[in-house]
Structure formats: structure tokens, C-alpha cells
Amino acid sequence: MQYEWKLCPACMDLISRLNFQVQNPHSIKYNGTIQGLKYIWRTEGLRGLFKGNGTNCARIVPNSAVKFFSYEQASKGILWAYRQQTGDEDAQLSPLLRLGAGACAGIIAMSATYPMDMVRGRITVQTDKSPYQYRGMFHALGTVYREEGFRALYRGWLPSVIGVVPYVGLNFAVYESLKDWLLQTNPFGLANDNELHVVTRLGCGAVAGTIGQTVAYPLDVIRRRMQMVGWSHADSIVTGQSKEALQYNGMIDAFRKTVRHEGVGALYKGLVPNSVKVVPSIAIAFVTYEVVKDVLGVEMRISD
What we know:
The chain has helices at about 10-20, 35-50, 55-85, 95-125, 135-150, 155-185, 200-225, 235-240, 250-260, 270-295. It has about 300 residues and is mostly helical. The chain has a single domain (about 1-160, about 215-280), classed as Mitochondrial carrier fold. Helix 4 packs across helix 6. The longest helix has about 35 residues, at about 55-85. It is globular and about 60 Å long. It starts with 8 loop residues before the first helix and ends in an 8-residue tail after the last helix. Keywords: Membrane, Mitochondrion, Mitochondrion inner membrane, Repeat, Transmembrane, Transmembrane helix, Transport. It is found in: Mitochondrion inner membrane. InterPro entries: MCP (IPR002067), MCP_dom_sf (IPR023395), MCP_transmembrane (IPR018108). Belongs to the mitochondrial carrier (TC 2.A.29) family.
């Protein structure tokens, strides 16, 4: 059944990427994307491949809404300030200004939904052998708050903030700048009536997603590992025989211990399954957003 290992990007993200990122180097269970998926299929079945997906869906809806809305508002504010400073009423956003607007949008959206992202990671890595089970997103949120305090819900927030600046910022900046360049140069006749085909826009989104997630990925690894700190009920996939990997005193300490014990390559664990998920998801998100606005009759696009 070869098709079983070509499951949806959500499976790749929720299981392979997170488990690669947080597994203990002394207790390796996943040596590759395909092997990791096969192991989970064999030990937990189809349900294990979608573990935490409900929480992810509940998180992604408000996250995307806040992100796109914040980007438009930030773009308007930055463009207004830029025109005031330069005195040019016809000035447009440069790639650098788009990067700033995207960074603002990413920070706002990430901060608004961070607790849900935090418990999603914990729900994903727990197994049937774990001595304690989170029954769902709300149960996990309540349990973490009760047992570890409010601050635990935002553990790993700092590397997330730092990481979201290049990640979301580059997504928007590359996507919009690449679209503008294609409209201006129109190579291979890709533009028609000052409009790009959906497939071309999907390509722009794929390029943006690839660049953004590659640059910011090490911070995502550190964020996931810091989210597991203090979780005494983590499965052995995370803790192994030693809990040293879970004891971080901050972002810098997490970087230092990860590189010292596992090498620089550990900062890119799970990059392949993450790319399989991120590249199409970012592309589809951008294009869907613009298409839905067309259907609803909203004339303003992201880059307007």
C-alpha cells in the first residue's frame, strides 16, 4: 500500500515534524520521514497520524484571519507613514516595508493563538503509553494552566516571536515582490490583462513558503523543545532515559544544549516533512485569500 505514505501535509506536520524536533537524541525512534510515518502507522494506526489535528484546525482559523487582517492594517499604516516621510503620495511598499508589515502581522497572530499551538505540540507527541493523557485542546489548556501556571502556556514564546519575523515577513515580502516582478516583466507570457494565473500565484506562494520556513526553522525547533519543558508526563519519545534535553533555562540555553549534544544538524530536524507541509499550505493560503476576496467582491488585494 504505497499510497499510505503519501498522506496529507497535515499528517506530515503534526507527527513527523514535531516528533523529529523533540525526540531525545539518546532514544532515537525516527531516522527519516518515511520511517517515522511507518513507525507511527504500525504502533498507533491511522488515528496516530492525525493526532492533534483538531487542535491545529481550531488554531489555524483565527491565526490566519488575524494574520491577513493584521498585514493589511500594518501595510496601510506603514505606507501612510512612508508617504508622509518622503512626501511622495504615489509611493508604494518596498520589499523591506512589506517585510516589516509581515513581521507585525506574524507577531500579532502568533501571540493571539500561541497557547493553542503550545498544547497542540503536547497532544501530538503523547502516545497511548504515556502515563497521562490530554483528552483534547480545552482539557490540555486547563491542565497546563492548573499544573504549571499561566506562564507555561507561553513557554517558547520568545523564539517564536524572533522566528516569526523572518518567517511570516519573508512569506509576504517574497510573495508580493515576486508577483509584482512577474507582472512588470511578464516572462513567458505569465501575466494576462495585468493578472497572474492561479497556478503562477501558487508558484509564488511556494517560493515564499520555502524561503521563509528555511530561514526560520531552527527557531521553530527550539520553540517546540521549550514547550515540552516542565511536562512531567511526556512520553519516552521525548524524554528517553534522560530528561536533560527537556531542561532549558531559556532560548540561548536551548540552542547551546541542542547544538552541543546533537550538532548543528539538530536545528533542522524535520525540515523535509515540514517543507512538504509548508510549501503547498502557504501557497494555497495566499491564493485562497485573494480568490475569496474576489468572490466576495472585496477589491483590495494584499498588495494594493
